[in-house]
Amino acid sequence: MSHSVGQVAGFAGVTVRTLHHYDEIGLLVPSGRSHAGHRRYGDTDLDRLQQILFYRELGFPLDEVAALLDDPEADPRAHLRRQHDLLTARIEKLQKMAAAVEHAMEARTMGIDLTPEEKFEVFGDKDPEADAEEAERCWGGTEAYAESQRRAARYTKDDWKRMQAEVASWGERYDALMEAGEPATGERAMDMAEEHRLHITRWFYGCSYGTHRGLGEMYVADERFKEFYDSMRPGLAEHLREAIAANATRHGG
């Protein structure tokens, strides 16, 4: 079975122009032609295109892709092993980047346009602008960041004080929960974790259960956030992380 250039472009999510270019430079020359002279691609061509797109996704320039694929010593399985290793490394890097984005996202939710005195009046000694530059660099192109910025721009000083009062009330109730010996996987702790998630959603951006899990990990891994939550009660950051994870599981997230 063979396929037209338009069909292959649709399968692979590339443009017809890209396939024409690959043909012109000898990177992917279709194995057949129709009676009218139009390009026709067979299964072997599709396998090669898949390899090309894997390497391109990994950042390899076209000349290096050609050299790799046309190496007479290379076993097709070796390409797959190499790509698997490279993709695994990239996944690990992206996971770290995602964690950094979640970190910056949480930090940026504290950012407000007040005078320095007002910032510290509302938040004590925790500087709301500490990670603003990093947040914009890492996360500035996302809709969640834009939504957080839109909402924050509308908040008054009274809004921020009301938000801080909610946080203080939540912290006092979580402290009491831990004092009573409630487990992190218990209903009360999970309900408090859900309240925490909804607070973020209500004031800043839609916080999914997956995102909330990531934030919970950050509250323990990042010393600044761990210190913030543990200032409410020693050990609260780790207790909250477990409660967030249990709550997410409870909701299928």
Please tag this protein with its features.
253 residues; mainly alpha; 3-stranded antiparallel beta sheet; 13 helices; elongated
Reconstruct the topology from this structure.
Blueprint: E1 3-4, H1 5-12, H2 16-24, E2 32-33, E3 39-41, H3 43-57, H4 62-69, H5 76-108, H6 116-123, H7 132-139, H8 143-154, H9 157-179, H10 187-203, H11 209-221, H12 223-230, H13 236-250
Antiparallel strand pairs: 1-3, 2-3
Helix pairs in contact: 1-2, 3-4, 5-7, 5-11, 9-10, 10-13, 11-12, 11-13
Overview of the molecule:
By secondary structure, the chain is mainly α. The chain is 70% helix and 3% strand. The protein is built from 13 helices and three strands; from the N terminus they run βααββααααααααααα. The protein has helices at 5-12, 16-24, 43-57, 62-69, 76-108, 116-123, 132-139, 143-154, 157-179, 187-203, 209-221, 223-230, 236-250; strands at residues 3-4, 32-33, 39-41. The protein has a three-stranded antiparallel β-sheet. α3 (43-57) crosses α4 (62-69) and α11 (209-221) packs across α12 (223-230). The longest helix has 33 residues, at 76-108. The model is unreliable at 111-140 (pLDDT under 50).
